[in-house]
Design goal:
The structure is a single chain. It is built from four helices and five strands; from the N terminus they run H-E-E-H-E-H-E-E-H. By secondary structure, it is an alpha+beta fold. The chain has a five-stranded mixed β-sheet. Helix 3 links the parallel strand 3 and strand 4. The longest helix is centred in the middle third of the chain and has 11 residues. It is globular, with a radius of gyration of 13 Å. The chain starts with a helix and ends in an 8-residue tail after the last helix. It binds tetrahydrodeoxyuridine.
């Protein structure tokens, strides 16, 4: 979670003003960070969680233990459905920790948040 707070500092969110940081821990123990990156063409924005997973893939790690997410709003920040689908591709059993502004933490499993994922199988 500490790494998610650090990652949030890198958010590029001039349009929403809502910063998100994510820290994804691989099976190796290494942690990969992401922050949301917005665009003037709003729909091109990429969430913190997907930036983290893409960073990990590009470092050669494809199996993951847990994800921590830290947003800048008042309440808990839960990963969006698109990010859950991307995470499920690599880690259907992922543990997900979400936090609020008071550094309270809620633990989930990916399957709690997205019980059915799209699959070609
Ligand atoms: N955002 C994330 O980074 N992760 C989420 O799970 C949901 C939303 C970002 C996208 C956008 O830059 C900002 O939060 C407001 O929607």
């Amino acid at each position: 979670m500490e790494q998610a707070y650090q990652a949030r500092e890198f958010a590029y969110a001039p349009y929403s003003g809502f910063q998100v940081g994510a820290a994804l821990q691989g099976e190796s123990g290494r942690i990969y960070k992401g922050a949301n990156v917005e665009n003037a063409s709003y729909g091109l924005t990429v969430c913190a969680e997907r930036i983290a997973v893409f960073n990990a893939i590009m470092a050669g790690e494809t199996r993951f233990k847990r994800l921590a997410v830290a947003g800048s709003g008042e309440g808990f920040v839960y990963p969006c459905g698109a990010c859950l689908q991307v995470l499920a591709e690599f880690a259907p059993g992922l543990e997900i920790l979400v936090s609020d502004q008071h550094h309270r933490i809620q633990p989930f499993h990916l399957s709690d948040m997205l019980p059915q994922t799209f699959s070609l199988r």
